[in-house]
Amino acid sequence: MRGRRLLLLLTWTVATVAAVGVAWLAVSSAVADVADPVPAVVVAAPPTTPPATAPPAGSGETATTAGPATGLASSGGAAIDDAATDDSSTGETAIADNRAPSPVTQSFNTQGGIVTMSCDANGATLVSAVPHQGYTVTVRDPGPHEVAVTFVTGDDHVDFKGECEAGRPHAEVDGH
């Protein structure tokens, strides 16, 4: 009788270990399929710095350079929001606002993937294009006149075309 109980316990243990092993393999395989990294296309525009301005010869003024795009001066760390000119003869100071408008960024979720683009004074710029599971992405035009991206899976194509209208992103999506 004792041998029979031992045999049942051993059989139950083997069956339980086999079932757990099969379940672990199934879950790890499913997670591997879901967790595969999706290739993303990220396009970054190079930073722009305005050129230095030179005063007229003999005016007694010194040349100035605008700070980086963060709005901080390159020396001293003070914020530069406006450019000021001083006319010592009248004691008046004129202030001109030389800030460029902030870019407007928007993401568009299509059947094939997500396209993020921005609009600024230079036009349209592709920020990123991330395909959905099973799709591949091709950037046809990153800007500045238009942003054009195609997502493909099998025979399915999703064409994205983005432009700036009144300084804001506008998109047309054609799936076929």
Structural class: alpha+beta
**Largest sheet: spatial strand order:** 1-6-5-4
| Beta-strand fraction estimate | 35-45%
Please tally the helical runs, counting DSSP H or I stretches of 4 or more residues. 1
Using only CA atoms, what is the Rg? 31 Å
Looking at the structure, what is the overall shape? rod-shaped
Biggest sheet overview: 4 strands, antiparallel
Poorly predicted sequence stretches spanning 5 or more consecutive residues: 45-55, 59-85
Report helical residue fraction: 10-25%
Strand count: 10
Mean pLDDT: 73
> Topology as H/E string?
HEEEEEEEEEE
Give the termini separation: 71 Å
Summarize the structure.
The protein has 176 residues and is of the alpha+beta class.
Task: Itemize the secondary structure elements and their pairings.
Blueprint: H1 2-35, E1 41-42, E2 83-87, E3 92-96, E4 104-109, E5 113-120, E6 123-131, E7 136-141, E8 147-153, E9 156-165, E10 168-175
Describe the structure.
The strands form 3 sheets. The protein has a 4-stranded antiparallel beta sheet with strand order 1-6-5-4, with no helix packed on it. By secondary structure, the chain is an alpha+beta fold. The chain has a domain of 74 residues. About 22% of the residues have low confidence. It has 1 helix and 10 strands; from the N terminus they run αββββββββββ.
